[in-house]
Enoyl-CoA hydratase/isomerase family protein
Amino acid sequence: MIDVATDADRSVRTVTIDRPEARNALTVEGLEALEAAVDDAEESVIYLRGAGPAFCAGADLAAVGDLDGDSERAIEFARLGQRVARTIEDSPAVVVAGIDGPARGGGLELALACDVRVGTPDSTYGEPGVTFGLFGAWGGTVRLPRVLGEGDALEFALSGRTVDAEAALRMGLISRIEAEPRAVAEEIAENADDALTVLKRRIRDDRERATQERLEADAFGDLVAVHADDIDAVLE
């Protein structure tokens, strides 16, 4: 269900949600395999994609149905999805979501956990669970307001509407539209691994400003020390 491939130069790990017959909907086993594929990465960049004509439909509704209305089991399933999203968000690698076709519910929430979201012209986005009495519970109610702002997040989630790539770009759900999103992952991977990790950590930090600024300065000092020769080469 989860296919992992690494470039010959080991700079980009491609992680594919490989269940196209179900629009790459994720079961418990699929979520656990996705978590392992991200957690085991040694590459500086992870490229997350879906096989076939969809990115990810989110939670497999059959798996949700198998919970038999048991709220405790439902909470465990939600917490597993949240844990996978945190694994993506906290990975030292830069995680680029290449979104082609539908990203729905939990699939969109996993994309929101990624550092960079790139959609193809055929990509579409939605949180349709509200239309049948549910909502995505893999961290979407936390991350969606961060990405869109509270007002737009509320309208988008409460309406259950679907938006196309151009609308997603305007809203800030994605940062670029590319026919080949993987090129963005390759572009990022050309940069220094340690700088990528530091930048991700600093930008992701949500502590108070003074702490962030202190850690930012410390990280800058470390990088200047490590890359002194590279800086001299640029100045020549």
Notes: Strands lie at 2-6, 12-17, 45-50, 94-99, 102-104, 116-119, 124-126, 162-164, 176-177.
